[in-house]
Specification:
By secondary structure, this protein is an alpha+beta fold. It has a single domain, classed as 3-Layer(aba) Sandwich (Aminopeptidase). The chain contains four helices and seven strands. It has a seven-stranded mixed sheet, with helices on both faces. It starts with a strand and ends with a strand.
Length: about 140
């Protein structure tokens, strides 16, 4: 498996495979659907990683850099896996790619609004399903 930063121009080519994963992760999150994020991904305002095993997308993560008055964050808008069984492998790849990306872009932390089940697996600080990771 490998994690790949998806160039904006390539997002539409994998969108039909990624969108159902993202929709699964967004259920109950302010009535958002994957398509609500597509334009920002295609325009390069947000960033997407796909964890690929052979030719199957096992996981997708996307988010944006947010500049606060004193710090910068990489805010994860959606994070989904095809199944929870390969979570640890996907998380290891996440550590090597998304965390490094956030650090290289001057972010002090990563934050993500996640479902309670993912918050427990991550073992990050759980703040009403807003989890944070200090870099």
């Amino acid at each position: 498996m490998k994690a790949l930063l998806v160039p904006p121009k390539e997002v539409p080519t994998i969108w039909n495979e990624v969108a159902p994963l993202i929709n699964k992760s967004l259920h109950g999150e302010e009535d958002l659907i994957a398509e609500d994020f597509l334009e920002a991904l295609v325009n390069g305002e947000s960033y997407m990683w796909a964890v690929v095993d052979r030719e199957t997308i096992e996981s997708a993560v996307f988010g944006e850099i947010i500049t606060y008055p004193r710090k910068k964050s990489f805010y994860i808008n959606a994070w989904a896996t095809r199944s929870g069984y390969r979570f640890d492998e996907c998380m290891a790849l996440f550590t090597d790619t998304v965390i490094d990306f956030a650090k290289n872009n001057g972010c002090s932390f990563i934050e993500a609004k996640v479902r309670k089940g993912l918050a427990k697996k991550l073992k990050w600080d759980d703040k009403h399903s807003l989890v944070t990771l200090t870099l």
